[in-house]
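Quick question, first post here. What does this chain look like in 3D?
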Amino acid sequence: MTNQPHMIDLREMVEKHLGKPLAASTKAALWRCPVCPPERHSLLLVSSNQHKCLGRCVCDGGASEWMRSEEQLTDELIMLEATA
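> Answer (accepted):
Ran it through. Tokens below.
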């Protein structure tokens, strides 16, 4: 029995921050991009391990910041499990 770390699904992480997606399938989900101006109607496409703003400006929908904070929490949990 191997103890593999839990992989975080990016869709779950984004849903925590932005709420339910506008549309979703088994492969990806769409949210309004929280970084782009509302008048652009840009969409943030998120799959389990990738994210991309579909707008004209170059941004990541703020997901990089969320990923860093989630990775820090995951690393802390792994360290706690290892010491237990």
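Residues 63-83 form the longest helix (21 residues).
The chain has one domain: 10-83.
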